[in-house]
Amino acid sequence: MIQIMKANDSHVKGISSVCIRAYWATYGETHSKEWIEKVIRVYNRARILREVSESNRDWGGYFVAIENGKVVGAAGGGMIDEEIGELFVIYADPDRRNEGIGSGLLNTITKQQKEEYGAQSQWVFIQKGNMKGIPFYKSKGFKFQSENIPKVYPEFPARIKLRYSREV
Question: Which parts of the sequence belong to the N-acetyltransferase domain (predicted)?
Fold first, then answer.
């Protein structure tokens, strides 16, 4: 049985592992090895340990999906405006997709943002070409709002982000 809970220090290694493996599974065929290795550096032990211990309106902390003591999913979000929450990160073990792990994590963060922080809407950035994430968010009621093309290297698709939102 999968349990969703607030992450603590004992979950740091599992959060790092899930995030790194899921990023590779999502972008391994569409992004260069160099790009992926650059991005996944943020999922290092020191940073995650710091982020696990933080929890405030801007960063609600990490939540984890646990099964038999193992982290099988991780997510986090926060408030970006008075009534706007944002999902900053959400990953499920790539071997466990379509089991409800992402849905459980999203529901938990949404509840936190609504009940603790007063969110009326929720936003997410999704990398263009993420054909695992986009259908997931659409199925949860998120609607496309805009495309964020970077001023530097606009032709580099790994940098283009799509903005989606929903009312909560």
Answer: 2-163
Between these two residues, 159 and 5, which has the higher pLDDT value?
Answer: 5
Cα separation, 111 vs 39, in Å, equals 28
On the 0-12 / 13-18 / 19+ scale of CB atoms within 10 A, 119 is buried
pLDDT attached to residue 153 = 53
Domains of the chain (ranges, CATH numbers): 3-167 (3.40.630.30)
Q: Which strand ranges, in their side-by-side order, compose the sheet holding 121-127? A: 3-6, 62-67, 70-81, 84-92, 121-127, 161-167, 143-148
Question: Which residue has 């032990």 as its token pair?
Answer: 45
Predicted local confidence at residue 50, as pLDDT: 94
Q: How far apart are CA 125 and CA 80, in angstroms?
A: 12
Report pLDDT for 157. Answer: 55
Are the C-beta atoms of 160 and 149 separated by less than 8 Å? yes
| Residue type for position 114 | K
